[in-house]
TrEMBL record:
CDD domains per record: DnaJ
Gene source species: OM182 bacterium BACL3 MAG-120507-bin80
Compartment(s) where it occurs, according to its Swiss-Prot or TrEMBL record: Membrane
Domain of life of the native organism: Bacteria
Keyword flag Membrane: yes
Transmembrane segments: 6-23, 35-53, 59-82
Record keyword RNA-binding present: no
Membrane topology: Single-pass membrane protein
Primary residence: membrane
Alphabetical list of SMART domains matching this protein: DnaJ
Annotated protein name in UniProt: J domain-containing protein
Cellular component GO terms, alphabetical: membrane
InterPro entries: DnaJ_domain, J_dom_sf
Length: 244
């Protein structure tokens, strides 16, 4: 009796822990989260009924055994179709329409930069240093070059500002003379939150959303099309991180 009571108490706790672990390690859409809750709730109800003695253990073990046997038999066929499924999903993502007004955000130690997916227009603000709080558009070329020198210890800030200079002041290297490029220092490692910002996506974005956002950005940022090498690498890194 005590064992059954303890089992009834532990089952909801285990279901809650399992749901939190799945949502923490997997990018689920709202629909997938609803199905996860429904599935765990159903299993929890069955588990509680078994623990109370209202259902025999075979009620759940028999279907699980049958499902495992069927899956084992179908596994070779499923593996053969897996590349085709991935190809179809990639095509679906590539054809997905762009969301109006979608923007990417790249944050570094010194800068917060936004990039419009439709126009490729760049806007930024200084977040640290002597020019903190200043929008980049309000700064003269001389001030931007001073900021570039100030960013020297942070490699991401240096390259991001150089990308902005190439966009807003195409001749900035000639104006800067011999000191046109600051030394680039350390680089920030990619993480999930940063990757979503770079692609202009929200938590819960599906594979198709990631593929579509990456496609739209690379059309404008690829170096072979007059884009920026640093931004293109950043977008590629964000896509690879999220898909892996």
């Amino acid at each position: 009796m005590i064992f059954r009571l303890l089992l009834i108490i532990l089952l909801p706790l285990f279901a809650y822990w399992l749901a939190q672990r799945i949502t923490r390690h997997a990018s689920l859409s709202a629909t997938q989260k609803r199905w996860l809750v429904i599935s765990l709730t159903g299993l929890l109800v069955v588990g509680v009924l078994i623990a109370m003695g209202r259902l025999p253990v075979q009620f759940i073990l028999a279907p699980l055994g049958l499902a495992a046997t069927s899956l084992f038999r179908l596994l070779p066929a499923l593996l053969r179709f897996l590349p085709m499924v991935q190809m179809l999903r990639g095509r679906a993502g590539a054809s997905k329409p762009r969301q109006p007004g979608q923007q990417s955000t790249i944050r570094t130690r010194f800068l917060a930069m936004s990039l419009d997916h439709e126009t490729a227009e760049m806007q930024g603000e200084v977040v640290e240093g002597d020019f903190a709080g200043r929008p980049l558009v309000s700064m003269s070329l001389e001030e931007l070059l001073r900021l570039l020198s100030e960013c020297g210890a942070d490699g991401d800030s240096v390259q991001l500002l150089q990308a902005y200079l190439a966009h807003a002041h195409p001749d900035w290297e000639e104006s800067a003379g011999t000191n046109k490029r600051a030394e680039s220092g350390s680089y920030e490692e990619m993480n999930r939150a940063h990757a979503l910002e770079v692609l202009g996506l929200e938590e819960g974005a599906e594979r198709a959303d990631i593929v579509a956002a990456h496609r739209d950005l690379m059309r404008k940022l690829h170096p072979d099309r007059g884009g920026n090498d640093y931004l293109a690498k950043k977008v590629n890194a964000a896509k690879d991180f999220l898909l892996e």
